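Write out this protein's structure.
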Amino acid sequence: MAELSFKSRPRMFLLDQTTASPSSRAVVVAVMRHNQRNDVKSIELRRPARREHHLWKRRDRGQSFRKASDLVRIIRNLPDEKNAIYDALDRWTAFEDEFPIIAIAKSLQTLKKNHHWLRIIQVCKWLFSKGQILTWLTYDVLLIALSMEGRVDEAELVYNKVIKDYTRSTPKRLFSRMVSMYDHHHLPHKILEVFADMEEFGIRPDGDTTWRIGRALVQLKQPEKVKQLLEKYLTKWKYLYFDGKRVRVKRGGPSDPFADQSKIDQPKIDQLKIE
């Protein structure tokens, strides 16, 4: 530490005033320290505190809800014509700095609660035309809407597109949704095709999906494979939500046709048949 003797008050000195920028310029702070022995003052070098510049912006969470409610109000009373829906959506996003994908996702959830399935399909197709990437939740809502409208072929096209684009990152929920849709429309051979994709990707089906696959095997006259399926994928325990908590419950009761997996016989397999 350099020693400096002076009797005046502390001063501020700047190093390299001509070359250094203000942000990188070192600030020399003269701190007077009284030394009882030799009565000298010392100076101490300090650098300014670094300022952290955040890259994100703080946004109002209620703004996306207001935009979503405005979108639902706009498209709810429009005719079922493609051009009318697309023009209204284009006008709604005309003066937006960023594409309001969050507000659109929230509006799709509102349309789902009100059972406006055709509007969901039209909005999702408009998103595809704009080159936007849908979230997994939006894909799930789209598949539900296509199933409720009876457009199973289009749902299969969406499923194949997702499998092609996101081969190793496709969630289990998408496969379960397709199995549920095919089971609702009585297409057992399609269920086995989805189950083959799940085994190829190493995805383990949940309990409900396993039962639907078992019913499909029974409908296709393959009851000998049901026992292997249940022993491999149907666990002894299941999880339920009680008072907001996840509780582990042992399988059994009137809702479970397989109370004990170690004793799977033909009468229990027959319970999978749809009346």
